[in-house]
Specification:
alpha/beta, 8 strands
């Protein structure tokens, strides 16, 4: 079964057919990255690295990027140690997995003690989008096995330099329903179709969908 990630959830919130193609599409149907897209991606990574270099006490779990259980265990250990910022922590919850850009330690109560963590996503735009909140809500759900509960809020670090709080209660309920649809697609119980949407410009399946149209 195709693992469900926060990034996949965010994308499926705009286009469920892209998830169907991720599950069952022929990789040869994907178009190649354009040079401008590669440059944009690299600029985003450089910007992200510049931002996190400002954070005191930042740590990153050491793992091979393939053994998700090992990455999750290492991330849990860093959270138990109480580091203020964790970059690209590996999270597992059943067959869901993901890596929030940042985990931020805040005052509160959790299975870890008298503190807890919330997810922060770094974005290269100027306002919080619905898919950003869905991505955060999915990350929050994946924190439940470690924290004992789902964080009620997260944050989006915009390209304005501002970290905007996001309340995740209602979004979590919507994400649960979206995950059920994604599981239905993955299990062959729910049909999708290609539609033109705002995600097409960035989607590597776009050429295949255009041929279907």
């Amino acid at each position: 079964m195709q693992p469900i990630t926060p990034a996949a959830i965010a994308k499926a919130s705009k286009c469920l057919h892209s998830w169907y193609l991720d599950c069952f599409g022929n990789p040869q149907w994907k178009r190649k990255w354009e040079e401008g897209e590669r440059l944009e991606l690299q600029r985003g990574l450089d910007y992200e690295r510049k931002l996190i270099s400002q954070l005191p006490g930042l740590v990153e779990p050491s793992w091979d990027g393939r053994d998700w259980q090992a990455g999750h265990d290492r991330t849990r250990l860093l959270m138990q140690e109480g580091h203020p910022w964790i970059y690209q922590g590996a999270l597992l919850n059943g067959h869901f997995r993901g890596k929030p850009d940042l985990l931020r330690k805040i005052d509160g109560s959790s299975s870890l003690g008298l503190y807890t963590y919330i997810p922060i996503e770094i974005k290269a735009h100027k306002q919080v989008l619905l898919k950003d909140r869905y991505q955060l809500a999915a990350c929050a759900m994946m924190l439940e096995p470690i924290l004992g509960s789902i964080p009620a809020r997260g944050g989006v670090w915009l390209n304005t330099g501002e970290v905007v709080d996001a309340e995740l209660g209602k979004d979590t309920n919507n994400v649960v329903r979206l995950i059920e649809k994604m599981q239905g697609v993955n299990g062959g119980k729910l049909k999708t179709e290609s539609v033109r949407c705002t995600e097409c410009r960035r989607c590597l399946w776009s050429t295949h969908c255009e041929n279907e149209w």
